Amino acid sequence: LREIKLLRHMDHENIVAIRDIIPPPQREAFNDVYIAYELMDTDLHQIIRSNQGLSEEHCQYFLYQILRGLKYIHSANVLHRDLKPSNLLLNANCDLKICDFGLARVTSETDFMTEYVVTRWYRPPELLLNSSDYTAAIDVWSV
Questions:
Q1: Which of 4, 9, 82, 132 is least enclosed, having the fewest CB within 10 Å?
Q2: How many domains does the chain have?
Q3: Active site annotation includes 11
Q4: Which SS3 state, helix, strand or coil, does residue 87 take?
């Protein structure tokens, strides 16, 4: 539900947009909720794993879009906390959108920030040292 709440307020070309939210037919059986996002063709993880070559221009354009999206997210005082290639969606025009805000948090929240976030391979040093006091720098490290 946190993901829905955050994404409803985000409107940026490098952030995946929610198209529809499908609640359960009966409120009493509220076990699942379905979220329909805009259609994208693949993710960066699949492109990296394929035999398709990426030019330097592709890499620069992807990096530019990631940083634009991150700037927008951070300007809204939100930490994504799980940036990785599989959370970067792409289409045939090489448009990139950041997705999966399931671990995202508003930085102004005074609640305890868990240190068990960010997929291990993209985890910054402060989280490896079990710090719960971190900033938007954790997202930049993941890039």
A1: 9
A2: 1
A3: no
A4: helix
Dihedral class, residue 130 (left if φ above 0, else alpha if ψ from -120 to 50, else beta): left
Q: Tell me how far apart the alpha carbons of residues 100 and 98 are, in angstroms, rounded to a whole number.
A: 7
Could you give the CA distance from residue 48 to residue 54 in angstroms, rounded to a whole number?
8
Q: Which residue is catalytic, options 43, 82, 100, 111? A: 82
Q: What are phi and psi of 20, to 5 degrees?
A: -160, 155
72-81 tens-digit pLDDT? 999 999 999 8
DSSP SS3 for 129:
coil
Taking the C-alpha atoms of residue 70 and residue 14, their distance in angstroms, rounded to an integer, is 9
| CATH number of the domain residue 96 falls in | 1.10.510.10
Q: Which domain holds residue 67?
A: 40-142
The answer to whether the CB of 39 falls within 8 A of the CB of 121 is no
Which tens digit of pLDDT belongs to each residue from 13-26? 999 999 999 888 87
**How far is C-alpha 75 from the geometric centre of its chain's CA atoms?**
15
